[in-house]
Design brief:
heterodimer; A: alpha+beta; Electron Transport Ethylamine Dehydrogenase; 3-stranded antiparallel β-sheet; 3 helices; 19% strand; B: mainly beta; Methylamine Dehydrogenase, Chain H; 5-stranded antiparallel β-sheet; 31 strands
């Protein structure tokens, strides 16, 4: 495999990671315009670097410490638009939406302390697709019948309605389970 | 002059009695579909909230018609016989808010008009998968719609009587796969299969849960099973096929077999994709999307399609997949096909040089000269192959923004 092929494959895998559930329009833009590269641009990095590090979090100027980046450590099993790109943050929903109380869980390793945390991916509901920062990662993800570990389910359900907008990634506990399967 | 103008105006008003080259036409005509073709396929678009019907033997960019299906993936269920089909739909009174209504809509298969509907509990699941969220009994009478609130259940509809027959609680078990008679099967979180048996009116007769037939912790099967005759084939993340015979009152679990050799595994080949399996019953073939990747890549799109003889449990062929084509808001970006050589090959060169987007979805038509259809979710274009030889035939634009599901118009495999 030559270098070009490798580059192409890497680009494809990046795209593939973000493909499946709800980022259909954003994927279109990503595929055609190469918007996948935008978080890598200097302006985006400067914006990230301006933030203060949060307690226990990786450096926000790195991909693994930036909640608007798909590579952010808490996003290891997310599938959706990142609320931090949609008017909310990684722990709060955008204005006018409602956070679904029922959710799916992932187990992700925090590179800042090397510990595994249980992350709750609550959907923000009641408005249409955000369209920004689609991200799909499937570490430890299970099929729909394994309900609480499936990211293919629209968790906007019940009182909050089915319209899906975006997703947060809230740390709800420590885990003894490995989040870094090989 | 004034007289002449008056005559002209009068002629314009009453029409000129001279022979027209174009026949005078009638306003208000609406088409109906011709008899069903062997190479028709429905393609779902989650952005335009519709399912489009295309004839793969037709012109490049022509669709036969469409149905608008409301919020979420539209998973149509097609009877084996009959002149209608059914789509579970979710609608809000004010778009994304207001009162939610879930219905099983009955469409006329020739006019594509919604001719009737059955209101079902507003609980249906809206997962981002394109199969197994609804099913129809083999006698085309009873439909089951999978609910998730997150409590799991089935909504049962008698489609002949156009009647909601009731809701059946199915704790711990999800999705819906048709069995024979009036049975539906569901996959449970512990790896078991739940069989729900109904009478001919859709009333619950019994529920029975099998022993687990796979380990959901170490190697879960995907939801994307395919049916050959009375056997459902589930495939696990690690590439093992689990045949399940549903011809009797209880499912019979066959011995699992591997789609991947040891050498394949050493090279990191894995199954994956949003709809990664298809079958052609006539030739006894199973089609499986594969890619090279690590653990947790069960949703990665495929770069190749591997074809198997189901009876012999051996691989027959590897098909290297091509880019299905680029579209923007439903419009094909193809250019230059009528340009002078070599520029007429520019688009093809561009596609072959660009990173392969990866194929998420496959389907195979059920006839004796079957076509293999492949799609990538972010494109509205399909790539079509001869399903027996693997030869690439053409690209076909659906007009969709996203191709999110492929469904045959007859209830053969799902």
């Amino acid at each position: 495999m030559n270098r070009f092929d490798q580059l192409a494959e890497d680009a494809l895998r990046g795209l593939a990671k973000r493909t499946s559930r709800r980022g259909f329009l954003s994927r279109l833009a990503a595929g055609i315009l190469g918007s996948a590269a935008i978080p890598l641009l200097p302006v985006a990095r400067r914006a990230a670097a301006a933030r203060e590090p949060a307690p226990g979090e990786p450096d926000p100027s790195t991909d693994e410490g930036d909640p608007t980046n798909c590579a952010y450590w808490r996003h290891c099993a997310i599938d959706g638009f990142l609320a931090a790109c949609c008017g909310g943050s990684h722990i709060s929903c955008p204005p006018g939406t409602e956070m679904s109380p029922i959710t799916w869980l992932g187990t992700c390793r925090n590179p800042a302390d090397g510990k595994d945390y249980v992350v709750s991916y609550n959907d923000c509901c009641g408005k249409g697709h955000c369209g920004n920062c689609f991200c799909q990662r499937d570490e430890g993800e299970k099929p729909v019948y394994y309900t609480h570990k499936s990211n293919a389910i629209n968790w906007c359900m019940g009182r909050v309605g089915v319209a899906y907008n975006s997703t947060v990634a809230v740390v709800v506990g420590m885990s003894s389970e490995s989040g870094q399967r090989k | 002059m004034g007289k002449l103008a008056g005559v002209l105006v009068a002629l314009l008003l009453i029409g000129v009695p001279i022979a027209a080259d174009v026949p005078i036409e009638t306003v208000g005509r609406v088409e109906s579909l011709p008899p069903r073709g062997d190479h028709w396929i429905w393609v779902a678009d989650i952005m335009y909230e519709r399912n489009v019907l295309v004839d793969l033997d037709g012109d490049d960019q022509s669709m036969l018609g469409m149905v608008s299906v409301g919020y979420g993936p539209g998973h149509p269920v097609h009877p084996r016989a009959g002149a209608e089909f059914y789509v579970p739909e979710t609608h809000y009174s004010r778009g994304t808010r207001g009162e939610r209504t879930d219905v099983l809509t009955i469409y006329d298969a020739t006019t594509l008009l919604p001719v009737d509907e059955v209101v079902i509990p507003p609980k249906r699941a809206l997962p981002a998968i394109t199969m197994a969220t609804a099913a129809l009994s083999d006698d085309d009478r009873i439909a089951a719609v999978f609910n998730l609130t997150p409590a799991t259940s089935l909504s049962i509809v008698d489609v002949v009587e156009r009647r909601f027959a009731g809701e059946i609680a199915t704790p711990g078990c999800s999705l819906a796969y048709a069995g024979t008679a009036h049975r539906f099967h569901m996959v449970c979180q512990n790896g078991a299969l739940l069989t729900v048996t109904l009478d001919e009116h859709g009333n619950e007769v019994g529920k029975r849960r099998s022993d687990p037939f796979f380990d959901p912790e170490t190697d879960p099967v995907t939801e994307k099973a395919v049916r050959v005759g009375d056997t459902w084939i589930f495939v696990s993340y690690d590439g093992y096929a689990h045949p399940v015979d549903v011809s009797g009152a209880d499912p019979v679990f066959g011995e699992r077999w591997s789609l991947l050799s040891d050498a394949d595994r050493d090279e990191q080949w894995r199954i994956g994709g949003n709809d990664h399996l298809a079958v052609h019953e006539g030739s006894g073939r199973l089609y499986s999307l594969v890619h090279q990747g690590g653990v947790d890549t069960h949703k990665h799109p495929g770069s190749e399609l591997w074809v198997y003889d189901i009876a012999k449990r051996e691989r027959l062929q590897r098909i290297e997949l091509l880019n299905p084509g680029l579209t923007y808001l439903g419009t094909s970006l193809e250019f230059g096909r009528d340009w002078v050589w070599p520029f007429n090959g520019l688009y093809e060169w561009l596609l072959s040089s660009a990173p392969m987007p990866g194929i998420d979805l496959i389907e195979v038509t059920a006839d004796d000269a079957p076509l293999l259809v492949t799609a990538a979710q972010f494109s509205g274009s399909l790539a079509v192959y001869d399903a027996l030889s693997g030869e690439f035939l053409r690209r076909f634009n659906t007009g969709n923004v996203t191709n999110f599901g492929l469904h045959l118009p007859s209830g053969s495999s799902r």
